[in-house]
Amino acid sequence: MLLCFAENKTIPVYVRGGDTLFLSCPGEKQNDYVSWFGPPNLLLYSQKKQVNSFLWKRNRVAVVSLPTKGKYCLQIEKFSLKDTGVYRCTTINNNIPNEQYDYNVQLAEIPSNVTILQQSDNGKITGLENHKLNLTCTVTAGKPRFQNETISWTYGGQSLLKGPFESLTYRIYPTFSNHMHFYRCVVYSPLLRSPVIKTVQLNVLYKPKTRLNSNSTIQIVEGNRLTVECSSDSNPPTTEIFWRLPNKTIGHQNSGSTSNLVLMTVKRRQGGYYECISTNMVGAGKTELHLEVQYPPSVMIIHNNFTINKELRILECKPDGFPNVYHFDRWEHKSFFGDHIRYLNVNSGILILPNVLSKIKRYQDSGVYVCAVNNGIPDQNGDIIQQGQTSVSVKGLPVFVESNEPFQKGKMDNFAFLTVHIISNPKYDDVFCSTSNWKLSLKNNPHIFNEEESIIRDIFHDNEILVHGFTVTFKTVQMKKNNFHNYTFTAVNKYGSASFNICLVENVKKKEQLTDIQGPVIFLISAGAILSSIIVNLCIMVIYRRCKRRRLIQLSNEVQAHYDEINESEQVNISHMLQNQRSTIQEPPSANIIRSFSSNLSSSSSSKSEHVYLDPYTSFIQSENYITLGIMKLQTPYKIRDKISPFFSLTCVAAGNKFKCIQKGNRKASRQYHSAEF
After folding, report:
1. Residues 205-239: pLDDT tens digits?
2. Are residues 88 and 132 in the same domain?
3. Is residue 357 part of a domain?
4. Which residue from 128, 238, 339, 553 has the fewest beta carbons nearer than 10 Å?
């Protein structure tokens, strides 16, 4: 390090041990040369640039030229305590000394003993959160003293406070965020090769800092599960942590730094503010959780019951849900039995019933009104739209419903029962039945009136529905001709009265009710049906006879082929055989027909020209399409009644175990039959 001074007086100079000393001679001129003297006792060190060869430290001494300083600057390397003392320079011009200058050169003392007060052996200073803490740094000054010697406090690379030697205090109010952080004291002096830095770590004692693993506000749909973790950070460690509702502690934990709030199934009543609280020796800390439970609205409808005299009728739908932003659907009007009456296209929470000009018709506003609303939150069934309903009963006059019959029937000489259906809110005070000659009340004549509550049909706003009402039946006298006339029923309550007329007519039997036109119509229909049946049967008979005639011709040819096989000697009197076996014949219901047939068969037994085969059995059996001798059947296309006639003849001749027979009649062609074999 170069330290050159040029003054007329003795100039103090400080050199750090081990540094190189440079001294210039201020009086040096261009044509001058310089001689240097030094300790001990101002011994000659150099003349011009020649160093005294007898100087004991000549190896460390030199005369050098330095720009702006001169040509004859004294240089001493590795300056030490032995080198301290007075140094003198003398300028010489033409061997004549001109000026001299003295330097008192001493070893410099660097600043030392940099200390942070109250720092523990582990390099920490303990402070209490939010309480004043002094950070004091001291230093022992060196020699020489310099104006630019400073002490400063820094934190995180930034300067907090700077001041002169020899002590500097920085006052802070630490928080938990300063805990375990480092502060630095920095000492600067020209005598120091680099600033001296002393570091201290803060140990801040603070009460617990609680935090959640979620936002401080949670929105959750009712019915879901909720788990929120609360953790605590404190110095010294947390001794207790728990959750608390107003006036209620939940989730208590005596050790550890976390506590969980668990709600298995969140209910709307569990919404609100929760606190997580933790404590240590310094104090208690807490954090707040705002739980917003979202749930579909419950719907309530507010209204007053109306009378038929009130024109302005208002119903207000008041949903209660969260969030409380609602969307309304159209209103529905239903009967007390759930029958749909009408929709009211009012998409708001306030329903003003349409005005009905006729007061009498305003009772039709009675029923159940349904308000449908949603806030976007589904219920447990997944339904978004929620409904609320209320019953409205309109008070007014009694009403005879549309389903009443204006014409009712009674039988001559019998009691008639006249029935009316009534709606009345409030209930009627009395009901009267009257004619032009008399008037009877239900109250005074319970023996001829019958009253009962009933479910009846009526028309509300053009829709048929079921309603609660009353059915009143009036028993008349035994009916005569003069009793079939009009009867008037009148119902009365505090709002007024209403009437209904019934025309009682005689109930006539159905046969007597046939008109003059109905008789001929029935006759024509019956005659047409009979005629159609006859025509169809005739057509079937004609077709059948034609088919039968073709079949007879074919059978005749087949029988002729067998005639040559029959001998005269084989012919027997079949009538004789039949007579011998008469005792075993069982007569069918048509026995007279069979006897006629047997007689004809006997009288024609001598014929040889026509025959068929017959089995020799002892009984005849009649069927629709067969004549059977024994169990042998003779095929015939006619019913038995067609075969037995005055012109019928049949000749049979025995042939072994068979008979051959031929039938003859007055027809042009003989009908031939062949027996079935067995």
Report:
1. 999 999 999 999 999 999 999 999 999 999 999 99
2. no
3. no
4. 553
